[in-house]
Design brief:
With 254 residues, this protein is an alpha+beta fold. The chain is 44% helix and 17% strand. The protein starts with a helix and ends in a 10-residue tail after the last strand.
């Protein structure tokens, strides 16, 4: 598996592979194999590369932690923890979607912040689906009891159901694309889940607090880790229990 962490760290540092090779005193082909083939460098070379990139060695090669009896594979899955949804860089949600090649999944009540933040989101989702990305969107059923309970808990009453209907209006342009599947769920939503191929953004929920004020985990699938698969399986369970959206509203119904 390619080491995307290392690739990104080099890019963010404004360096080339040649710069890393020169600093570590190895052949550039070796650095290429670190990235493209996920090869684990010798300890000395790991230390030199990490110092050059000003990043923790375990952030670049989490598998090293297991041999040290420290951080496990699941720790390697955590890219970053954001204290609340607003702390996630605004463009992150859309850049990850632009880079998605196979699977884009969304599980929310409304997720209205996404189309609010990018007016062409429906067109972008449609284009990704036309390019072969499998898109699955699961919204809360605005008429179900769990949505009514959640609205009451957050102190917005029918506002949550209205937000769901508005999100469906905003996104309906993408719904008739064959690779886009849309369903409604009536579950107690413990987390909002956004999957971009092998990356996940998990917006945790807390009682009586809007999702936007709760932490977000950025996870990346990592060999031997359990967090990515744990949340991916949760999505699948909700997907299987949800029902297809028959028709998106043409406009917001009061």
């Amino acid at each position: 598996m390619a080491n995307e962490r290392l690739r990104r760290a080099i890019q963010q540092a404004g360096l080339r592979l040649e710069d890393v090779a020169e600093h570590v005193e190895i052949d550039v082909k070796t650095v290429e194999r670190w990235i493209t083939k996920g090869r684990l460098p010798h300890a000395r070379n790991r230390v030199r590369a990490a110092r050059l990139l000003h990043i923790d060695e375990l952030d670049l090669w989490p598998e090293v932690a297991e041999s040290r009896g420290g951080r496990g594979a699941s720790d390697g899955e955590l890219v970053r923890l954001y204290p609340h949804r607003g702390a996630v860089p605004r463009d992150c949600w859309y850049e990850l979607l632009e880079a998605t090649r196979e699977q884009f999944d969304v599980l929310v009540h409304a997720g209205l912040f996404l189309p609010d933040g990018r007016s062409d989101l429906a067109a972008l989702v449609r284009r990704k689906a036309e390019d072969g990305v499998n898109v699955r969107l699961v919204y809360g059923d605005p008429d179900c009891d769990p949505v009514a309970v959640r609205g009451a808990e957050e102190g917005i009453g029918d506002g949550l159901a209205a937000r769901i209907r508005l999100a469906l209006v905003y996104m309906r342009e993408a719904f008739d694309e064959p690779n886009v599947s849309v369903r409604l769920h009536a579950t107690t939503l413990y987390n909002s889940i956004y999957r971009y191929d092998d990356e996940l953004l998990i917006n945790t929920h807390a009682y009586g607090v809007p999702a936007g004020q709760s932490p977000v985990l950025h996870l990346r699938r990592f060999p031997g880790g359990r967090l990515f698969d744990h949340y991916a399986a949760s999505f699948e369970r909700v997907w299987e229990s949800s029902r297809p959206l028959v028709e998106a509203p043409a406009e917001l119904v009061a």
